[in-house]
């Protein structure tokens, strides 16, 4: 059962955290926080790790049992099943949103006349294929692509560094405002809090007591990488222009002037990003299939992978009709929904601790 | 799942994946694309005139010199096409041009946009908007200005060194021989958005190898000032433009000569490095901008009897350079202030460093820049070497014949 090493967990989580943040979310951060984007990201990352800490502690109490099975011992069956389904639905929504962002991005810039269902379908097939082979394939995929993905993300700020206007960096200090940073922090913590879903896969992990170290490592790597992208955005475009761009990361890529062939390097980098996003989506699909399989008391997650992926793929096509609707969706209550789903393990942790304390008191009374 | 079923699933999934190759929907053959290398935009009485310069791949012959509109017989072999149409707006003209061109117009290789002065007087926002929204045009596209009608002058000029006009312009920019203003430079901040310097492309007959009556070649000729996206009357001469480029840290190597402080003979210099730092300062309620220039120069010619081995005389020379540089910078800043256009982007420095005070005056920034801003300029020149010889030829080898 214990087949996933801590190194693989670290790499999966690192990819999971920085891939969609850098690719899709930098624009909204610039719009809402301007100079305080970096501050918001740092705080959000720490908050997210804090949320995941409780999931870690809860998992450590029963590292060889699946959460979906022992959860009902903590809060009772009638509360556990809806809560776990809530987490599954939240994950479905995360998957659909990421899928939608992916196909919108690809269609807008690179595949102009391709119908969205082709992209959703093809990506869905890739992801379903990966996840069908079990937890190992997801983690091995992450392990394999991690180094290349990391290098490609690191390459971008280095290549555009000659266009930096370093003086704008002073603005990071002079515009310090936690109030302005809060929207970004909220956003980021809902992303980094997705690490709390490690709770579901504890029986698969080797050396479960070192999980928190891997998670902290992922948080540090992911936060550092996101900062290495948002600060160049500020230094090259300034906050007013950067907040006006829909895909600032892409504009950043296009700003490379170091030799003519690197200017058109963006499709190659996009390909690497795609794989990182696939890894993230693979993990999400796996979590959902795990939840559904254990709720229905099935041993194997395989039967659920294809339907779940199909649901996410089709759902992403119908969930919003245009970019404007998508912005409406994201600035509404959706983030709070994700937040709530990540806080559920904390609820279990609190109840479990109370129960343990109460049990100890009862035992003590009998002595 | 049995092995046969697994294999069936794998094959089906694989075939489906191949059949749904997503690139095939939107693929455009390379032969079916017309790459725009330069955009020319002008205003005529009938509307906006858009001219797109295409390199014609079907006419590119290895070994051909290309690029010159020298004679009528050679024009059919020219590897360029400048398709031009007029429409009420940029996009309408673009649609008409697409109707003329049998290939898909592709903007991915456009690095330069040349604007006519008549269009610029009405405002360059349509161009900025077009570049910003188009997913293929990049924000570091260079902008140039041509006085008067653009189309014929540019399309029919002679290009001695390169095949295409775009290569010439790219060469100017990458060798830092011309002011480089990109689309992004005009969009840093609302307070001074649309303020910038546009390099002017001039046309002169400076190629003695061409027959008389040939079209002129390209040259770099000063700059024009944009204020709020519109062209203003003031123009910068090439010498003033060098000071402006220095302030923007774009001037690296520059050759100039000054009168020697000892006896008035000309001494020629070549700057090997020039670093500008611009820093905002706040004294009480008043903003001040401090421009510091550190430059290193090498002497390349001397017609004076100045003793280049004496420290005192070198110091005098350096101070003479400082004085001339300061005057140059001050005069160009004064000219832009008179025009009321913050072309150097001082607004950004203040907004970064003093946000609270900046918020109070940012609505009237241009007015503040014109009338109230204090500008302090300091230059620190250092003469590193005197070239390969010590004394001037006149002093050492020529006799003064009365």
Automatic annotation (TrEMBL), chain A:
Topological category with respect to the lipid bilayer: Multi-pass membrane protein
Protein's GO biological process: spore germination
Keyword DNA-binding included in the entry's annotation: no
Main subcellular location: membrane
Keywords of the record: Germination, Membrane, Transmembrane, Transmembrane helix, Transport
Keyword check for Transmembrane helix: yes
Subcellular compartments: Membrane
Family: Belongs to the amino acid-polyamine-organocation (APC) superfamily. Spore germination protein (SGP) (TC 2.A.3.9) family.
InterPro entries tied to this protein: Spore_GerAB
PANTHER family, per the entry: SPORE GERMINATION PROTEIN A2
Organism: Cohnella fermenti
Pfam families the UniProt entry points to: Spore_permease
TM helices/strands, residue ranges: 12-31, 37-58, 78-100, 106-129, 141-160, 185-205, 217-237, 270-292, 304-324, 330-351
One cellular component term from this protein's GO annotations in UniProt: membrane
Name of the protein described by the UniProt record: Uncharacterized protein
